[in-house]
Amino acid sequence: VLLNYFLPPGTQFDLILRVCIMVTLFSSAYMAEVIRGGLAALPQGQYEAADALGLNYWKSTRLIIMPQALKISIPGIVNSFIGLFKDTTLVSVIGLLDPVGLLNPIRADSNWNGILWELYLFVALFFFIFCFGMSRYSMYLERKLKTDR
What we know:
mainly alpha; MetI-like fold; 5 helices
């Protein structure tokens, strides 16, 4: 909504584009903090080892620092993705469809038998399956990459 205030007069964006920009900015702030935490968790010796190898800043970051920081940050990254997935229901506030928002047209259909709890159970299972799957994948990555060391 506020994006149009920061651009020249007469500039209009589609609602979906504005939501994509908003969600991207919102989630990137959380992701930056998660990765910053992973960088802060690295021992100073890793930076010194990169200097000892004679690597410049960009090569040491790309080859030594970031792979280890991302490995440490996997639980936080997956947690942010799960939170972002659940936050997509907030776009219903501005009129876009989301899994919960799809219930209203179904309820309004005259052919629907009126059992409301079935709809909410289906959406709850939808969210549970995706969030549970993402958390299990995170656990798999943690085991595979041995992030507990």
